[in-house]
Structures
1.
Amino acid sequence: MEAITIKDIARICGVGVSTVSRAINDHPDINEKTKSLIMKTIKEYNYVPNNSARNLKRSESNTIAVLIKGITNSFFNSMLKVFENEIQKKKYSFLLHRVEEHEDELDVALQLEKEKRLKGIVFLGGYFSHSKDKLKQMKVPFVLSTGGISEIIDKKSCSYVMVDDVKESYRMVDYLCKLGHKKIAIITTPPSEESIGKLRLEGYKQALKTNNIPVDENRIRYVEDDTFDTFSMKYGYEVAKELLESDTDFTAIFAISDSMAVGACKAIFEKGKRIPEDYSIAGYDGMDITFYYQPSITTMRQPAPEMAEETIRILFELIEGSSEREGKIFSADLVVGESTQAIR
Amino acid sequence: MEAITIKDIARICGVGVSTVSRAINDHPDINEKTKSLIMKTIKEYNYVPNNSARNLKRSESNTIAVLIKGITNSFFNSMLKVFENEIQKKKYSFLLHRVEEHEDELDVALQLEKEKRLKGIVFLGGYFSHSKDKLKQMKVPFVLSTGGISEIIDKKSCSYVMVDDVKESYRMVDYLCKLGHKKIAIITTPPSEESIGKLRLEGYKQALKTNNIPVDENRIRYVEDDTFDTFSMKYGYEVAKELLESDTDFTAIFAISDSMAVGACKAIFEKGKRIPEDYSIAGYDGMDITFYYQPSITTMRQPAPEMAEETIRILFELIEGSSEREGKIFSADLVVGESTQAIR
DNA sequence: TTGTACGCGTTATCAT
DNA sequence: ATGATAACGCGTACAA
């Protein structure tokens, strides 16, 4: 039982292939009667056009792809929803493509561009560091959204929407300092990992410096290397536990992601300590859980929906011919929850 | 600047296209020297083969697709990780495809099957209810994984891995009853929605019946219709709030998802009530947050990794020629947390 | 070991 | 309004 093709349909209906093609693609130049006959046989025989052939022949599509690196988290989910809506609104179709951890997102993009004749690409998350040379190969407009851009890359070479991780991280730690905390621990991703963890750690260090607090390496705690989902609750929990069992003294923890913060909270509760009376906890990202956790967790809320909208706006500007590269840096909101309080 | 093709590479290298093709696809019959020359030029000119053309020409690939309906949640994420590993282990490649809420997953599968010459498909989640007729069109092996199968579908017509939502939901509610709870509220998805919410509600009703507790419609609370992510914390929170503000009496809440349970907890805390002293809360799914929440939440843990492994095992059995349809129903674990206690 | 030529399923151009 | 036919970029049987 071979797969049925456009030719079969044409033969069955006693028409030419081009007529069938016209029927499928809603071309104007076709008799209503023949069209409905064709559509009927298509249904009857369960004919499904082969997309590969279509893409091969078509010179362009109206597809926007969103490439997302690694595991989708709830933060990305809220952006995806916006992408989907906005793209649909513009009568484009939306293709979500996940790129595996070990793959090169740019290679994937290049391939997808050819395969699907994309109109535009959004790179969501990931720590985007690629050579300018390779970046030049990208012929379709693209926007980097969320997630730090490596300093290796000249920001001038592409469009982006992001928050300044160093600055916002600084703000959070500075806030903790202003509450009187002097012994602030940080839970972050492994130093080996090229990720926003680095940037957020940098902000932490700068904030301590501004507040004349020496950096104590013992208070910088890294998630173990080579683990899977370094931003997860699990590792926040484990690292915080270690921290509590060590003889390192601290009054506050800044976890570089909300998930880690949740894990840290649990570790503290298990020790019979209270939040924020015994320890203040701060997270980062602005995920829903910070509101629903008990106590609610102080966090830096990244304005995900606004960033997503801006991403699409810029992308379409690019698509519609603007040659202007455009970058926008959003500010995060410091959302004060019940998990932090002034010292004493 | 036109896209570069295999012909260009052939011309540049002064060889035939087939030689280039052989180089790309690691064919044995090729001189090492010509091969390395070709690979060098490919790099140099940044040639990227067009996948559409390849798929069109190829009669088969070694790709397994995982179709996931709607938004990825952390429950699916843990399964995806397993899928990815197992599929890689078998030297197949892994394609994750998200199908939009409004799309028909089967249509998408049919299309993808043709486009990518798939070897197998996993349908992850979603409430799978399709006519047998349509199911017959699927020529590649497929397995339904997680998520209830509609009773409309004869379970005999396809392979699946799932938990018995009615039964497990029953167990949870029965557990609450045995703790002495007689006024148990449930938070579930809208009745209009074809989802596992229905099955879990059914289990709830059966458990009450067994325990000689009449069903009080006031204690059945539905998430508002036409909302986006009905399983989310947000709606658990809102519905629980409504419930608390109504004059409906209850001592326990069974939320049909852990996320909803978390939201419900927050609503209770905001009213100044305690968990489990004032209200017992139970969730369903076994998501990480139930462990990290304070208090930890009683839940029915679905054995995600094991289910994922079994899914792949069955799929490959099918691929390797077994014509035996195979279904496996996993039992969930009742994980007792701090959020439930005996009445009085 | 290498090159030529055909066909995969579709759309677009050009006749009719 | 409709049909024949030439591409699209690639893999491969076959010939060399």
2.
Amino acid sequence: MMDTKTARWLDSEQQASWRAFLSGTTRLFERLDRELRDRSGISLPEYEILVRLSESPSGQLRMAELASSLAHSRSRVTHTVARLEAIGAVRRRACPTDGRGVVALLTDEGRQVLVEAAPGHVDAVRDYLVDVASPEDFAAVGRVFGATAQLLGDDR
Amino acid sequence: MMDTKTARWLDSEQQASWRAFLSGTTRLFERLDRELRDRSGISLPEYEILVRLSESPSGQLRMAELASSLAHSRSRVTHTVARLEAIGAVRRRACPTDGRGVVALLTDEGRQVLVEAAPGHVDAVRDYLVDVASPEDFAAVGRVFGATAQLLGDDR
DNA sequence: CAAAGGTAGTTGACGATTGAACCTCTGAGG
DNA sequence: CCTCAGAGGTTCAATCGTCAACTACCTTTG
């Protein structure tokens, strides 16, 4: 009923790794998100946007740059930035060089939110992921998902 | 304003790995979910539930077992199973040994959906993740997230 | 410089997830 | 047995993400 060629199933070690990945990432993201919300009042995606903005020399980025940097849809970025604007962490401005464009600008309040949220968040990333692995294993994680990200980067 | 001890920031290699992980998982889950929906009409969480049920000798599992196995909330499992029931892939039954309990039972239709979905899904997992990594690197991924999953397993 | 097609972004409706409130049932202690 | 703390599930409301229009602008082409 299936086909004559053997399906390319995962062997049991690959299977175990894949399941561990699914379970680990599910729990990790849930935990990071909840700690950020409880301690700083922002979600993980909101935090990531503030980080990107803070890393820009001008403290501002185009909506599309945020979207591609985070691998989120444009629509999602619109909504997330709207929430951040509602709490005063970012402001929207028309882009001076492109009449279609909008830039999101980090406010002083937004920078303050980030300064207060970052240490605890980084600690959590260490406690629940980075420091539970050997440096070599964590570097391998970087290589694997770097390859995945690049492969799935800009298609379709 | 922060504190006198230096914050435990990530070094630039760890930072790069963490970002690659975020971007890679975001794109990976989006892709796997969309391919499943397009080709088989079910979402990734729905697929995972069918897999768990199919692996049970009796083809049935308690709702709570599904929840802890997937690291999903009970509420989420209730909703997901309801969707699967609506398309005829699963049936709900009262648990004979525990009056509070409910078991989800894989139907023949559900098994058929799974049989048709699985090869393509496994191919996708290989194409976008497993086979882009060396076997050693993918084993490292398993170790890292296994440790994370265990650490975040049954707290709170 | 007009038309056409593509890019940037928003909007609104809908579907999925969360969290808390709520019932029911179980199991342990007195 | 009776009580009562707690587990198993569901439900409702609120929040978040997705998808399909839709507007506005840019850019290429002839």
3.
Amino acid sequence: MELDPVIHAPTRLQIVSVLAAAEEAEFGFVRDTLGVSDSVLSKHASALETAGYVRIRKGYVGKRPRTWFSLTEQGRSAFADYVRNLQKIVSPSGLTVLPG
Amino acid sequence: MELDPVIHAPTRLQIVSVLAAAEEAEFGFVRDTLGVSDSVLSKHASALETAGYVRIRKGYVGKRPRTWFSLTEQGRSAFADYVRNLQKIVSPSGLTVLPG
DNA sequence: TCATGTACTTTCCACTAGGGAAAGTACTTT
DNA sequence: AAAGTACTTTCCCTAGTGGAAAGTACATGA
């Protein structure tokens, strides 16, 4: 019933959730989606990379540098575990809020 | 999409989840269920009370003092909001916090 | 060519929350 | 009187967060 602290921090939970929904996402897209500053996103992305959860790919669009993030397999399974653990914690309450 | 920080802290999330599943719970039951120390539970329970989410009732069992916790209406709705917000964050991934 | 701009990254800083340990409180029991 | 129960509070210390600002590397505009 441990909630992985690397994922649990709100900003990182949002990053991981965004990445879980896509194959790859641009730095700017994630930053704007979450409404965080460059430095905050950069730092959290590095933390996730260090944990082995996120892959950071650098490339170019035209001649301008660009950064993309994606979840590693490890990141995907850590996220799935995290959500499962959340369910275990929350579900005894019998709440019936459903997605959608 | 804000995750109420009072509820988000892992230990408090667990406390609130336990209380959401019951009408009232004893101090010792919650402490043992979560596997935390007296001082940790006491501090988090106070924090939840200060936030208006938990009611702390003191009484006796025989001649021994005992403490019970319960969610206030405000606490129940804050928890429901919290879970709804979690679901919004997580759902694009196709996973769900509350299977139904 | 020099200044500015883009796209981040890193450093600095100031704060705060969270846990463990230990001491404190108010009884009750032995 | 000493010890135990059931917590509460204090003390201390560390790690985590965000914002601001400076740094890096390359590209472009005047």
